[in-house]
Input
Amino acid sequence: MGLRFETRASDSPWVDTVWTCTSEQVAEMTSVATVCWGLVFWEREGRAYASISGPETRTGTAPVPEGATFVGIEFAVGTSLRAVPTAALVDGGAELPDATRRTFRLDGVRWETPGPDDAEGLVGRLVRSGAVVRDPLLTEVRRGHRPAVSARTVERRFRAATGLTQGAIRQIERARLAAARLADGVPGTEVVSGLDYFDEPHLARALRRYVGRTARQLRDGSGGAIALDLNQSTTS
Output
């Protein structure tokens, strides 16, 4: 028992992943650092809820409502809400009012609550309405292109759009990937060399800061509930 995650990739350039989760006999979980902001919808005991989640710069613990079912949309780095800058959501979030099983309110408009299979449909409507926007420069940089602006300008735009530095984004993404590889049984030495950590102590510090697990805990699945799909069961 605990948290049961299922995560899938998305073909939308606005979306990083879509996930579902159910909670059973668990009161709290280890939260994991993430570079994405998101929309989260859940139901418990017949009542519906909706919230905005922000990027997280470190691990911690968070309460979990028992018997809840969740649907989450993680938005791509560089996107943001018109009404709430992503930088204002770092290490936090906001509950959305007047949520029902059918609809929720965002940016002054009532939207249809999505299921896991129609998340992209909701995102498309949010984009077309202008409720979700993005900085194209960040998309260009993330794809490996070199924009015709200074490094200082790029860094400033990253901070404005995400609330994070490029260095922080790289470190968090690398630690999450390392956790997934360790959970999949990849030896620590291979993770160190494959992800350019200096050595295993360097990897251990990153895991402790961003994931809240040791390499051994990730390999044997111990340590309790964690807000990360370590099975990496992604489908397009």
